[in-house]
Amino acid sequence: MNNLKSKDPYAALRVKEFKTFLLMRFAIVLAWTMQFIIIEWEVYRLTKDPLSLGLIGLMEVVPSFSFALFAGHVVDQKEKRKLLMFCLLGFIFISLSLVFFNADFTSNFLSAHQILYGIYACVFIGGIVRAFIGPTIFSLMALIVPKNLYANAATWSSSVWQMGSMVGPAIGGFAILWIGVTWSLSIVLSFAIFSFILLLLVLKPKPILNTKIGEPILKSLEEGVKFVFKTKEILNALTLDMVAVLFGGAVALLPIFAMDILQVGSKGFGLLRAAPAVGSFLTLLILAYFPIRRKAGLKLLFAIFGFGSCIIIFGISEWFIISLIALFFSGVTDGVSIVIRHTILQLYTPDEMRGRVSSVNSMFVGSSNELGAFESGLTAKLFGTVKAVVFGGVMTIIIVTITGLKSKKMRALDFKNQD
Length: 419
Known about the structure:
By secondary structure, the protein is mainly α. It contains 14 helices and no strands. Helices cover 81% and strands 0% of the residues.
């Protein structure tokens, strides 16, 4: 395939509409991640309970997981730009609601418990929106750039995602310190509105490539799930990433580390939260110039092994600098994993099934973020914060080692063979 032969690291960026798509995606990711860490901080401040942090993840994963397959069917049946507009309107509504629940005047007529339940309700609705927004963006990107640029576009799209994940938490941490929770959430709202304006004014409607419009939903969903499970390259990559995300959910406990263990406050919290994204972002930039072609499967296995090791180091560290470095390198290893997984998804997924495959991906990986947060919060409640993080890192290493030893197909995966 020509997409792996391209020597131009900026090839996809020469597509004008793709650059607008990247700016829009950056605004969405920045707003979403910034909003999430502000919620984490405020919920822990209100409750001082590790389990409450896990419940944030649970409130998002239940609707996200439940609606995922249905969302994939809808995405493959509908025009992607219009569908994304509805998703962003939902995001704007959630952001506006969170500003209301955290405004100073709200405490005059709502109790702390009612405010907490309101925040959880917003997170729940956000889970529904996220079920649709992920596969819509994934499918839309494939309609913006030509097929020979998929791998390069996937790298830049992942880079922008990581940049947003890096900048969002950092801005959120400092904003909480400087202007408080309510005004910080107002900044989130402004970015959500900006992303909607970009979509409305610049991106054009796209054709629907699915030839089975009106296909019964159960048959459509069955085809999508069967395709993922019979395509071992996709299934293995999703399973490994799911394991790493599920058991490596240390970031969900960062408010506890920042407040109680490392004692670095909201400023340190923002830096800790941004460190993995900084590592991933720098890795993705490097991989844009030096793309992974040979021994991709082995590199994925080693990357996830390294990720688990970094999580263990972070868990046992009592020094802020070491904790920061461990999180940074967890992002480096995660960046390698992201590129390989996204390249596999783009290369092996037919155009007419991108929505459904992306939805299965969100069930495997995206939902694992919130399940991982719940697992971390629950184990922290039962056994202590440090033991919970170390347990997650150890489980990641054990499972990736077993997978590497048993799966010859994963060890042999090589993008060079796609040339």
